[in-house]
Amino acid sequence: MHLTIVSSLDSQCREAATERLGWTHANSVVVLHDLLDGSLVLRRVYRNGRLFERGTTVLEHGCLSCTVRLDVVPTAERLAACGFDHVVLGLPPGVAAGMAVAELRSGLSRPAVIDNAVLALDPAELDDHIWDRHTLFESGFTSMPQDERTSGEFLVGEFGHVDTVMTYPGLGAVLTGDPREGSPQWVSGVELLGELAPHATVAAAADDFRPGCFDPAEAAARNRPGVVRVPLAETEGSFRTVLHRAARPLHPGRFREALPRLAVGMHWMRGRLWIASAPTKRIAVQGIGPRIWLESTGNWMADSTEAAPMGEGLRGEVGADVDAFLDWHPSHGDRGTVLAITGRSDDVDAAEIRELLEGCQLTEAEMAMDADAWDDPLELSDAL
Predict the structure, then answer these.
(1) d(CA 286, CA 40)
(2) What confidence category does residue 6 fall into, taking pLDDT thresholds of 50, 70 and 90?
(3) What is the largest CA-CA distance in the chain?
(4) Please, what is the angle between helix 350-360 and helix 252-263, to 10°?
């Protein structure tokens, strides 16, 4: 059985993408799931563009993960048993593709190949989504009041997991008759896509699409907190991504003061920090639009039992942190600050970012101080 998973915030984009994907294989079927008020799951199944099954299920505890586990997975299982070779799963708006992949792998009783994880969106709305302060519930994308993710957080998470982004005019464009394709907002959104998801294939309605490029190991690597992936080459345009590295630990107080200046105008900040007040901890930083947060992801590889003596190399299992191998240094191992900031070209100044981060690094005198001397630890729970 072959599966294609489609996530989205916009039901119009999702349905356009799933309809197209339903024709990529012979003997395909398309399933659309929606979680409505009252824990009601609406399920619609299409074959060759025609609706042939419609059903509802009331969940005891209605939530997005329960919808996937208790209805999406059993539906995929049932359709495979009916002899369909390819099932396109249009997830409820706000359901992450990564969660669906995990539930399908653990819940299906028969082998399945995931051909693609696809995000469907209207690029003309991407910039507004990134900067929206409202939660998915407040914006009407989900029926779950406890869902505190913003649209920007959802989309950036999906960019890391999916291999393909399909672009279609959203529901708002259809209702107003707005021909968005080719508009300045559309072109700008597609350009921003290239910075936020440089690995992904971007397929518009008229573009060719070749199924079969989902790599679960690579998707997991991209989504590890603190990992940085940037476009291979910088191009002249409305958006840019600046990458900077700092080899010495950062002074916690100076970094706290610099963080708001680093965040001004950024669409997406991501990376890992080496902070002097927590020198053995690999601290991930992420900022999406108006929100920034830090989290400890455990010890650096150099401070773990997997590090080889004298920093001569790494002993680890397959699937260990690739960045640790690539960034390994003879004296400080994988420790170090790596920060990438994406934003409008007029707002992201590479020289200013470099100056700010260089100024946060410990001086020679501070490097000689004991770690216990730092009385200004950086609060990992702080968010801007």
Answers:
(1) 34
(2) very high
(3) 73
(4) 170
Contact present, 291 and 381 (Cβ < 8 Å): no
Residue-level pLDDT at 375: 57
Find how far residue 154's CA is from the centre of its chain.
7
Place of tokens 């070779």: 85
DSSP 35: E
User: Residue 219: phi, psi to the nearest 5?
Assistant: -60, -40
Please, what is the end-to-end C-alpha distance for the chain in angstroms? 45
Task: Kindly provide the b/e burial profile for residues 204-220, where b requires at least 16 CB atoms within 10 angstroms of the residue's own CB.
Answer: eeeeebebeebeeeebe
Q: In the prediction, which pLDDT does 378 show?
A: 59
Of 257, 247, 289, 1, the C-alpha closest to 134 is 289
Instruction: Mention every residue, 6+ apart, whose C-beta is less than 8 A from residue 346.
Output: none
Q: What is the DSSP letter of 301?
A: G
What is the Cα–Cα distance from 157 to 205, expressed in whole angstroms?
Answer: 23
Between vectors from CA 149 to CA 148 and to CA 154, what angle results, nearest 5°?
160
Kindly give the pairing relationship between strand 266-273 and strand 86-90: unpaired
pLDDT of 129 strictly over 80: yes
* Residue 199 vs residues 12, 50, 62, 160: alpha-carbon distances, Å: 25, 34, 34, 9
Report residue 86 as tokens: 């390819």
Amino acid identity at 165: V
Residue 285 CB coordination number (10 Å): 24
Calpha distance 44→14 (Å, rounded): 13
303, 290 Cβ separation under 8 angstroms: no
Measured CA to CA, the distance from residue 170 to residue 175 in angstroms comes to 9
Q: Give burial (CB, 10 Å; 0-12/13-18/19+) of 33.
A: buried
